[in-house]
RNA sequence: UGUCCGCUAGUUCUUC
């Protein structure tokens, strides 16, 4: 079963969800909780939230008790399909199981709430938790970016900067993508500069993509193209 | 019978 679980995981991560499912089905009744989790996260990582949720319900029906891994995974699936009502149902289960304080489950809950448009709930969880760390901050910032809300993303970012948990490259992917969605070129550039100069965070491929996106959306096509050609990464 | 361990989980550009 462990070998099969690993196969499901590998297929899922390599984008062959159908092959993962074939292995999953071959195992038949020998599934353990890891088998279910590996298959659920495989679906979640490919934005197949419906399939993940169907599997989650089936797992519960068959009497397999979801663990922290299951909840973190199913919440990611819920985020991908923006299903706030499913998310709330899952949250109730999380509370019943006493998993709300787990940092993985908590950040998944926050991610789900903010992406599903309920940033007040995400904020509330954040204020209550003892895990105000880089990842939970990032979850808020990235979530606001997904919702095209630069002001809220910036607001979170500034609060994060004032606090004592460090910013990282993911923080800036969130902030820069929020700028990009709003076509805020000047802000993109100044944040990018602050990232490298004040915070000594090395720019990644994603950061350059955000800048190119930002330039492109605001009509600066020549600049976008020249940045694309001069960035220290292979374009795709 | 129980507990623990081994395979699985959170924040990440564009498009959807």
Characteristics:
236 residues; mainly alpha; RNA-binding
Secondary-structure topology with pairs:
Blueprint lengths: L1 H12 L3 H11 L5 H13 L3 H13 L6 H13 L3 H14 L5 H13 L3 H10 L5 H13 L3 H13 L6 H13 L3 H13 L7 H13 L3 H10 L6
Helix pairs in contact: 1-2, 1-3, 2-3, 3-4, 3-5, 4-5, 5-6, 5-7, 6-7, 7-8, 7-9, 8-9, 9-10, 9-11, 10-11, 11-12, 11-13, 12-13, 13-14
The chain binds one RNA strand of 16 nucleotides through helix 1, helix 3, helix 5, helix 7 and helix 9.
Report on the structure:
It contains 14 helices and no strands. With 236 residues, the protein is an all-alpha fold. The longest helix is centred in the middle third of the chain and has 14 residues. The radius of gyration is 20 Å and the shape is globular. The chain starts with a helix and ends in a 6-residue tail after the last helix. The model has no long low-confidence stretch (mean pLDDT 95).
Summarize the structure.
This protein has helices at 2-13, 17-27, 33-45, 49-61, 68-80, 84-97, 103-115, 119-128, 134-146, 150-162, 169-181, 185-197, 205-217, 221-230. The protein has 236 residues and is an all-alpha fold.
Distance between the termini: 38 Å
Largest sheet, in brief, is: none
The rounded Rg comes to 20 Å
How many strands in all? Answer: 0
Helix and strand element order: HHHHHHHHHHHHHH
Q: Residue share in helices?
A: over 70%
Principal-axis shape equals globular
Structural class: mainly alpha
Strand percentage lies at under 5%
Number of DSSP helices?
A: 14
Low-pLDDT segments? none
Kindly report the average pLDDT value.
95
């Amino acid at each position: 079963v462990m070998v099969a679980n690993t196969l499901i995981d590998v297929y899922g991560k390599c984008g062959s969800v159908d092959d993962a499912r074939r292995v999953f089905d071959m195992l038949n009744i020998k599934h353990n909780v890891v088998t279910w989790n590996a298959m659920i996260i495989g679906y979640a990582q490919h934005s197949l939230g419906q399939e993940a949720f169907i599997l989650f319900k089936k797992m519960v029906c068959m009497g397999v008790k979801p663990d922290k891994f299951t909840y973190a995974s199913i919440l990611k699936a819920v985020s991908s399909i923006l299903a706030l009502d499913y998310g709330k149902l899952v949250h109730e289960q999380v509370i019943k199981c006493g998993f709300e304080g787990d940092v993985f489950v908590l950040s998944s809950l926050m991610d789900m709430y903010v992406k599903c448009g309920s940033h007040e709930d995400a904020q509330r969880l954040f204020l209550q938790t003892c895990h105000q760390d880089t990842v939970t901050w990032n979850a808020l910032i990235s979530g606001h970016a997904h919702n095209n809300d630069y002001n809220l993303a910036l607001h979170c970012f500034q609060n994060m900067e004032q606090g004592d948990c460090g910013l990282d490259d993911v923080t800036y992917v969130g902030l820069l993508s929020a700028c990009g969605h709003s076509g805020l070129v000047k802000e993109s550039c100044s944040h990018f500069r602050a990232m490298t100069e004040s915070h000594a965070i090395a720019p990644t491929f994603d950061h350059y993509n955000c800048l190119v996106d930002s330039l492109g959306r605001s009509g600066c096509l020549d600049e976008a193209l020249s940045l694309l050609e001069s960035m220290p990464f292979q374009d795709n």
